[in-house]
Amino acid sequence: MSLKDKLITILVTGSEGQLGNELRALSSNFPYCQFLFVSKKELDIADPVKLEKFFSGHSIDFCVNCAAYTAVDKAESEKEQAFHINAEAVGILAAVCHKNKTQLIHISTDYVFDGSKTEPYTESDKTKTLNVYGASKLQGEEFAIQNCRSTIIIRTSWLYSSFKSNFVKTMLRLMQEKESINVVNDQLGCPTYAADLALAIMRIIKSGNSRENSGIYHFCNEGVTSWYDFAVSIKELSGLGCEVNPVSTDQYPTASKRPVYTALDTQKIKSAFPVVTPHWKDSLQKCLQLLNK
Ligand SMILES: NC(=O)c1ccc[n+]([C@@H]2O[C@H](COP(=O)([O-])OP(=O)(O)OC[C@H]3O[C@@H](n4cnc5c(N)ncnc54)[C@H](OP(=O)(O)O)[C@@H]3O)[C@@H](O)[C@H]2O)c1
User: Fold this and answer.
1) N or C: which terminus of the chain has fewer CB atoms within 10 Å of its end residue's CB?
2) Catalytic-labelled residue, pool 121, 133, 160, 217
3) Contact 162, 22 (CB under 8 A)
């Protein structure tokens, strides 16, 4: 099948989240694609009957699953709900995709790793989770591959966007409200602008070789930083006066244990597909420019 000859139909589940919104924002750049954006209200991925009905009413080439339970701390007390959406529902969605010859592009997380490495994690590194959210996402990966072998899983990290709530928007708000804030400086990772991930997904779809290259990939922006340095950059690029103090994880207890190092190696995705990974500071600047408009 030549993708150039055919209108490609792309279902985007969980379309009201950060990534779903970013895909919608760039959809007009892809006139040969027909996008079906569905929110949780319109299509609950945990509802097998509704999924079957939806798929039987459309001929869907790709399903980009942006639906997820993403409340990392809350997941510790809502384990069942986190596993229901991030694991069981993903398994159901994958089975429906397989039945309908739809390629599933599913998004996962750096929190499938325990952070014990000191250099970027590759796709073949051993997974080990530290929290419920990570465990639920890891099981989702397994169910997706089991039920739909053509699945592409993209693990990403520290996602932010001009849409919805995220670290960047929280920092901007706090920096305007307070004279000083504390931010942890001993967790390292790669901030990722959801707009860059959305473009990478579209390039994978456009590549025409996504079925031959199914499997797990890592995608994040270039460069590794701490939450503290990320916050300092947000402050400097926005010209805000708030004092940002570095604190250790011990001084900032959260319900969920987080890995101390989750930088992701992106060589595999860049070799398989025409995907680019801009530096996190350049992407942060783009996002802040949009937010300041
Ligand atoms: N955010 C991060 O820092 C981060 C880091 C690494 C990986 N990821 C992964 O990246 C992906 C996209 O994340 P995101 O930040 O865009 O997430 P998000 O903003 O939290 O959006 C997730 C969307 O999924 C919807 N949803 C929840 N349950 C659903 C269901 N049963 N059926 C259909 N939709 C449902 C949510 O709706 P409601 O809001 O109404 O519940 C929300 O609109 C997720 O797979 C996430 O695990 C995120």
Assistant:
1) C
2) 133
3) no
State mean pLDDT over 194-199: 98
Cβ of 164 below 6 Å from ligand 1: yes
Q: Which of 15, 40, 136 maximizes ligand 1 atoms within 8 Å of its Cβ, making it the mutation to test the pocket? A: 40
Q: For residue 111, what are the CA distances in angstroms to 59, 87, 130, 237, 264?
A: 34, 14, 8, 28, 11
- Choose among 63, 153, 150: nearest CA to 106: 153
Which residue(s) pair with 160 in the sheet?
Answer: 193
CA distances from 192 to 103, 153, 221, 275 (A): 24, 16, 5, 14
The pLDDT tens digits for 74-131 are 999 999 999 999 999 999 999 999 999 999 999 999 999 999 999 999 999 999 999 9
Instruction: Find tokens 């792309």 and name the residue.
Output: 10
Q: How many helices (H) and strands (E) does the chain have?
A: 10, 12
Give the domain 3-166+192-221+263-278 fold: Rossmann fold (3.40.50)
Q: Is 57 helix (H, G, I), strand (E, B) or coil?
A: coil
The full set of domain ranges for the chain reads: 3-166+192-221+263-278
- CA 7 / ligand 1 centre spacing (Å): 27
Say whether 121 is catalytic.
no
